[in-house]
Design brief:
This protein has 121 residues and is of the alpha/beta class. It has helices at 9-17, 104-110; strands spanning 44-46, 57-58, 70-78, 91-99, 114-116. It has 2 helices and 5 strands; from the N terminus they run αββββαβ.
Length: 121
Amino acid sequence: MNFDGGNEIYMLIEQTLDIDTGGESDDYNVTSLEGIHALPGLQSLDLDGHGYHPAPLDLTPLTDHPTLSELFLTGDCTGAGALESLLALRNLDITLAHLDDPNVPTRLEARGVTVHHRRRR
């Protein structure tokens, strides 16, 4: 699932709801991951653009998701420990993200997860 501004999903949503925002609406911002378990086959989630939101994104709804193997995060994220429960996780991009637990990436790398992040100081 990709929330890129140019993605055709926006036009499909607008057609379905009979609205016309041009995609420039806060209605498309991901503010919560609640209900993510309703997508048990979800393998890839790209939350690029979330970083433009002032409130942190709570990652705890991801806890124990069965198939999520690729995750791209931006902005401030809380509940980072939930990422350690993702047994299918293979790739994590936090280059543009700030996790509330800075040790999570190291523990994930030790488990074999490829973690893309800012250069360490």
